[in-house]
Design goal:
Radius of gyration: 17 Å
Helix content: 25-40%
Oligomer: single chain
Number of strands: 4
Length: about 100
């Protein structure tokens, strides 16, 4: 019985690692798109709450199958959370939702 639990946990951890890899790849692609559109590379540094010009990103992601996901919405804040914009993935049209 203990081996069954270990196997279930190992399978679960492997699945989480695969999903984490997919999310990392999606984030890298979004960063590339941001830079291709003329975004400031300094805004992509690790989060620093003392840097008000840093762009903060968050994503609404839905699972579309056992092995895939889709980014639905992207939330951006160019000023550390004072102003927040929302846009659909793949769109440049954004809507201010705070600030």
């Amino acid at each position: 019985m203990n081996n069954d639990k270990e196997q279930v946990m190992n399978d679960y951890i492997k699945r989480l690692e695969r999903e984490n890899l997919k999310l990392t790849i999606a984030l890298c692609n979004l960063r590339d798109d941001f830079l291709d559109l003329g975004g400031d590379p300094n805004q992509l540094e690790l989060f620093d709450k003392n840097n008000p010009s840093q762009l903060n990103l968050d994503f609404e992601i839905v699972k579309v199958s056992d092995n895939d996901f889709e980014v639905k919405k992207i939330y951006e804040s160019p000023d550390g959370g004072e102003t927040i914009y929302q846009r659909n993935a793949g769109s440049d049209d954004r809507e201010k939702i705070k600030g």
